[in-house]
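Weekend entry, working from home. Most of the wet-lab plans are on hold until the incubator is repaired, so I used the time to fold the two sequences that have been sitting in the queue since the last round of cloning. Logging both here for the record. First:
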Amino acid sequence: MIILFSLSLGVMVAGFKRKQIKYIDTLIYIGEKILFMLSSTSPETDEIMRELEKDERLKKFDFTLKNENSPLSPEENDKSRLLFNTVGKYDLDCQISYINQYLGHFKMLRQQYQEHYNSHYKLYLVFGLFAGIFIAVVLI
């Protein structure tokens, strides 16, 4: 029982790392969608937000940006909040420039998280398994 519990903890840690990658994918998708809308039709800020909220892929995304469910660090959450705070505040060229910087940052961050996940997820599972075996042996 202890072994299964510790193995499940390893699975949960690996799942959390995977959740971070999926969340960053969502942020990148939002940035690309905003960039596309600004580049093509230059809509008002309210119209951009309505379009994002209607998107099926973003049904579970928290647009209030309280980030209680965000798996990212507070610093990364602040950067994602900045995207929504700058849309509509500056001229079109500045907004497009900022969104491109935002996308570059989060694409780089996604790559780092993916590389970390690829190189460490098996370690989480093995560590969980061996920690459970160790505890079980010590208790016996």
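Second, folded right after the first finished:
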Amino acid sequence: MTRDATYSDLLRLETLLDLQRTLHDPPQRDELLFIVIHQVSELWLKLMYHELAEARREIAADTLPEALKHFARVKAIQEQLIAAWKVLNTMTPADYLEFRHVLGTSSGFQSWGYRLVEYILGNKDPSYLDVHRHDAAIVARLQAALGEPSLYDEVLRLLARRGFDLPAAILARDWTRPFAGHEAAIRAWLVIYRAPREHWDLYDLAEKLMDIEGLFQRWRFDHMSAVERVIGHQPGTGGSAGVAFLKKALDQRFFHDLHEVRNRLIYG
């Protein structure tokens, strides 16, 4: 990039703005809307994964203030992802029917950018690789993410470094498997939550994780609502279960210990 590069050169606008190619001939009114919303969401997911990976690195390096700065950006990104559904909700069922048939076997379930985010947040499910078997490069990237510690795995390691008694079984486990919580971790969080001023940075870290999970659930719920508004309970594109699958996803949690600790605290 030269010093006299223009705004268009910097952002490669000619390439970027050529990517919103409609499939229907002639293009239908809301086809461009559908493509733009999903492309923009993929860009936000890319940035979200980058920020989560940086936060994980900062936690591993015991630099929590820097990690929390990345969390603040992640939450702002999540708000943008949630806001996108409001724009998509301006598309009616009749509008969607004008071009749905040209979407073929494509489905949001095939978003590997979304899968990277889920993997780093701890929803480790190797079966999701199957949908990408046609692309060896994507499978390799997802397998690498699957085999790395999740964000919460690094948080548990941090707790151990701070002197909390956590067994080796959860500190050096098979990272490709989801972590469903552990009694020792819950006991550690109970100590922190019962004396937050004494453990303020860890308490704040835990609450920021819950913020991220809460916003993720809002995004999932608004996604489900947007799909239900347009296609009801019919199957989605690409053979997906549509609303039924999205509703099931609402039951998924990333930070089980942080949910359980709320059940153990005694108020009054």
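Plan for Monday: verify the second prediction. Residues 200-231 form the longest helix (32 residues).
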